[in-house]
Amino acid sequence: MGICSNLWDKKLSLIFHAFNIFGGFLSLGALGSFKDYKKYYVLFFFAAIFALFISFVVLVLTLFGKVTRKARTLINYFIVMVLGWTLIGANIIYDTWCIIPSTCENKSKTYAAGASFHFLGLVGLIIYFELQKD
């Protein structure tokens, strides 16, 4: 029971990390292609890169079993906070610029896809770690 439970916990955690990382790269790719508005995205861009780096490190360490559940929970809450606020901030700026149709083009589809993966990953992590509380 314990071994199966730990294996399932690890798989579930990895799935949500994968959503976050994939969504992060999609979103960053879309954000980075807005050449005229880069100065508005610098803060969010670097915050997202930092969070993705941490998420990737935790993902690799989790695969090799080097991170305890408690440490993973604390790190993931931090990632949820950073990516969550990055996503909210970037969405506010993005929606503001999307009032002008020519600024959106096809990038809106890529960004929306990335934001969706972020959202699924973040909500999944929040629910997952709330359920793990003793």
Protein architecture, described:
The protein is an all-alpha fold. The protein has one domain (2-131). Helices cover 83% and strands 0% of the residues. It has 4 helices and no strands. The chain has helices at 2-32, 38-63, 69-97, 107-131. Helix 2 packs antiparallel against helix 3. The relative contact order is 0.19. The model is unreliable at 1-5 (pLDDT under 50). The chain crosses the membrane at residues 12-34, 40-62, 74-94, 110-129. This is MARVEL domain-containing protein. Keywords: Membrane, Transmembrane, Transmembrane helix.
What structural keywords apply?
134 residues, mainly alpha, 4 helices, disordered N terminus
Write the layout of secondary structure elements.
Blueprint: H1 2-32, H2 38-63, H3 69-97, H4 107-131
Question: Can I get a quick summary?
Answer:
By secondary structure, the chain is mainly alpha-helical.
Mean pLDDT: 61
Beta-strand percentage range = under 5%
Count of all domains: 1
Shape: globular
Helix percent band: over 70%
Summing up helix and strand content along with how strands pair, one would put the structural category as mainly alpha
